[in-house]
Write a structure and sequence with these properties.
- About 30% of the residues lie in helices and about 30% in strands.
- With about 350 residues, the protein is α/β, with parallel strands linked by helices.
- Strands 6-7-8-3-9-10 form a 6-stranded mixed beta sheet, sandwiched between helices.
- The chain starts with 13 loop residues before the first strand and ends with a helix.
- About 35% of the residues are buried.
């Protein structure tokens, strides 16, 4: 797995060389990340992951030149981004910011059309080619039928698709999105990420997203850029990073663990009670969710506890046994109630 000191791939479309990012406050330089060496290829969806304050948004804004880099170099297809005009830069990089809002009362097609400004200018008229690109962007983001809707009338998920469509209409080889799924409900978060995954594959664009949602990002991203505060960026394929224990190390915490088997974070419950489980099939869904429920209620599973839980998945039965008593139930809620009753007698 590569890290922030990895050597460059000579044919990488995007190359970040010895980059220092942060802020200049008067004469004081506030460095967020330093000595970054990173590369990206065409057609990749890359997720920037990390704790608050690690520099995800700062890196995206620096890559798009919304804020100046402190030192180093960013090259796109061999061109130094600092040495090209703003117009040329806008034809290479588009960005969708967190909580982006359209203040004016645009309809959907009008807002998406703004993406053509780097080619037409603010007062320029749209050519047939411009209109074709706008229509393609609308189609790719599943916004057909929305063209004449006012942007203020849309849901958060619909509005986010409009901003992505505007970035597509800008027709840049690189698209940067800062927290594109924040404030969206679960279906819309998943739909947006699946849309971005499909766009990267179908258009061969390099798409970056910053997100806190590691578990979801792992399922759609080609690469993870895992940022640590003032400690560089670890880069890798999600599955390699799981197997190598990267997430265990970076997200180590006394209150939760990273479960390598399921690719998710598991809360460390206060296990101050004991129970014995005898399961029909340890790998069954019934056994797994029974174990999760017991852990959530503070039960540590051992071999010789005073309370025994037996599962029978074929008959959907939980049998709770204690001091010669045995009670059978047909769901986890009732099982927990019986265990609580027996525990009160200990």
């Amino acid at each position: 797995m590569a890290n922030n000191l990895a050597t460059h791939t000579s044919n990488s479309f995007l190359q970040i060389k010895d980059l220092q990012i942060g802020y200049q406050v008067g004469k004081k330089r506030m460095v967020v990340q330093d000595k970054l060496h990173l590369t990206a290829n065409k057609g990749e969806l890359i997720a920037l992951i990390g704790r608050n304050g690690c520099g995800k948004s700062t890196l995206l804004r620096s890559m798009s030149w919304l804020q100046p880099i402190l030192s180093g170099k960013i090259e796109i297809d061999g061109e130094d981004v600092s040495q090209i005009t703003p117009k040329k830069r806008a034809q290479l990089i588009s960005i969708v910011l967190t909580d982006q809002r359209a203040e004016a009362s645009f309809n959907v097609r009008e807002l998406i059309s703004i993406g053509r400004d780097p080619y037409t200018g603010w007062l320029g008229s749209l050519s047939e080619n411009d209109n074709d690109i706008i229509s393609q962007s609308i189609e790719m983001t599943n916004l057909e039928g929305f063209e004449n809707r006012n942007i203020q009338e849309l849901s958060d998920g619909e509005r986010q698709r409009v901003f992505i469509a505007r970035a597509l209409a800008q027709d840049t080889p690189i698209i940067l999105l800062d927290e594109p799924t924040s404030h969206l409900d679960l279906p819309n978060r998943i739909n947006i990420l699946l849309l971005l995954q499909k766009l990267a594959r179908d258009t061969n664009k390099t798409i970056f997203i910053s997100t806190h949602e590691l578990e979801t990002a792992m399922q759609v991203a080609d690469k993870i850029w895992l940022m640590e505060k003032q400690n560089g960026v670890r880069v890798g394929v999600p599955e390699d990073m799981v197997l190598e224990g990267t997430f265990d190390t970076v997200f180590s915490h006394s209150n939760y663990d990273f479960d390598k088997e399921y690719g998710s974070f598991v809360v460390k419950n206060q296990l101050d009670k004991h129970v014995t489980t005898i399961v029909e099939n340890p790998n069954s869904l019934m056994a797994r969710w029974t174990t999760k429920a017991l852990s959530r209620k503070g039960f540590h599973i051992i071999n010789d506890a005073p309370i025994v839980v037996k599962t029978n998945q074929s008959q959907n039965i939980w049998s709770v046994q204690h001091q010669g008593q045995s009670i059978e139930v047909h769901n986890i809620e009732n099982m927990l109630q019986i265990i609580a009753h027996f525990s009160s007698q200990l």
